[in-house]
């Protein structure tokens, strides 16, 4: 089966018909279930065949040495890698003498469907063993959004012919063997052999528990399982365990039409501090609660949680059913990544795969949190509180680098810098401002003053201190920030990166304003008026380079003077460039991996005129190769703003289909969470024209010809605003709350309950379509009609990260 036809187009789910053994790893990422606390890849119940088995717990990692050919001062000494913990998904089935293994026998039917409204992964299979016995297997799996330690599966096997002797082995498997060997791609994960050391085990009745400890990071991980069993009279149950294995077996004989049903509850608990009995008991308690709720109860809770989510967060699209599916898929996975992460990080891949070693980057604050702010604000608070818990480490890092305040890590699991490559790691200081701005957005959107006092202010203060010490006033009084890396990783250690400087400016101003609002807390943090005045001065004097000759902003000082990358001499197979060319060459040429200046125009639109936006966008389009999946969504937003609506539509689809079409060829390592969240931003900030960097939300709606209608909702300061855009008008409706002031096309608009406000669609000019480097144009989005199966069109292979 070719990858693009595997999944059926369906607005509320992802279904796979048949089984593509070669594409399994990708499907496992797509079908991953998570609640942000635990994550299960969509591996088959029986464990094998698999692409990449994966069970992840947020924050559970192992330390590993970071070897340097040549070390240097301030280089991190060890890295952190997410580990595949004890696999509690496995239910093996023996049919007479044959293991139910889809590589053998005849697979008559196989279907999986992930339902976004139910939060369930359902599977149906009919299989004839090599010995000619036929069984039907159906399973339904969930990772609970309401009981965060719990995953469960309802597994049923029915004899089609027979009598058949069946054995079900429900397993806990620690230190699972992982496929692998040396990965040439630096973006994949390090494979750690047997990271778990056995500490305790028990098995009795229908239950088993295993406790392990990671060897170096010293985290204790407990997993327990318990079962409910229904079947013909006289089934037999045994439980046993070994160091790395817990097993509950059920055996019986099934006559044609008879069913054996096993409901498996699995609970995880982990801690770096709690004692063995404490972690074990936590898991047993979670299991007790899950059994008490029961399978039907868990399913009902899941539906209820998601009902509320979709009622307040759905993005509806008329005119492109595949994009509708993709954007719901995106929202569903963003929800899964953040829902219960609770003072832990949200990694670049969520908990869907080990890519990037399970690290969190600026992706979270820049792409994921802006989406969650307006649909699941509590998740944003939790994510920022996690950053706050890492402040002591960030202060230490700043001190080590000779800077004031806090320097947050470019990539990390626990808070320590794990990037061994300084130019595209620590030098990307903008992450400090990305965090600060996410906190400002959260407070503005929710009015959560308590958060601002307890966490937000300190994040702002420590990052402002960092900027003040990193930059300096030159002889002309301009505040300059030199030797930093902006979002575009094909430039590094440059002076006055416009994105960085504008974000730092927002950060410095916001810190001064928040300190003025909360003077006592600010004083306790050692902030005085002299310091806030220095922040204000730096913000006011922030230097933003501009190339008068070309009439565009250079991404950083001197960028527009660099030699142009020779795109004509770069064949398609040489992308992504980072895998085929040395960084030194990329750094000294005009070639852009991902939106940088264009992102600055989104997050600080107020700093550019409309004309500058159009000119800058056209200039950077010719240079941007989108070797990062974090680019298309931003290009979509600004393309829409400058009137390039079809181009914006193409980029939106690219961001949304990144994983469903495996455009980067690496969905197998986990989903691209920033691109998925970015697809939502492309719709809401692109076509909706939402900007939230001012005091009020502002909208400039536009719709490409390919879409008939776009509708979305936003939670803002206790209200629920619904926005509906068609080609003729935009209607704002307040579904909750008393009133809301916003800007539509720059004009104030007050929306009140029961009185939807409607405005006619502005007719923008249609400028000529901008050009991209040859071979790097986005696929043209065809206008879609009605529900269809597959897109039919061959998706381009982007070979992006
Ligand atoms: C991008 C970074 C991003 C990282 C993780 C890299 O390819 O250039 O901006 O943070 O991937 O997604």
From TrEMBL:
A biological process term (GO) from this entry: carbohydrate metabolic process
Keywords, in A-Z order: Glycosidase, Glycosyltransferase, Hydrolase, Transferase
Pfam families referenced in this protein's UniProt entry, alphabetically: Glyco_hydro_65C (PF03633), Glyco_hydro_65m (PF03632), Glyco_hydro_65N (PF03636)
Every Glycoside hydrolase family 65 C-terminal domain range: 690-751
Glycoside hydrolase family 65 N-terminal domain span: 16-271
UniProt cross-references to InterPro entries, sorted A to Z: 6-hairpin_glycosidase_sf, 6hp_glycosidase-like_sf, Gal_mutarotase_sf_dom, GH65_N, Glyco_hydro_65_C, Glyco_hydro_65_M, Glyco_hydro_65_N, Malt_Pase/Glycosyl_Hdrlase
Keyword Glycosyltransferase: yes
Limits of the Glycoside hydrolase family 65 central catalytic domain: 328-679
Annotated binding of substrate, by residue: 362-363, 593-594
Molecular-function GO terms, alphabetical: alpha,alpha-trehalose phosphorylase activity; carbohydrate binding; hydrolase activity, hydrolyzing O-glycosyl compounds
Active site residues per record: 489 (proton donor)
Protein EC: 2.4.1.64
Taxonomic superkingdom: Bacteria
Region (Disordered): 749-801
Family designation: Belongs to the glycosyl hydrolase 65 family.
Protein name as annotated: Alpha,alpha-trehalose phosphorylase
Species, as recorded: Kitasatospora gansuensis
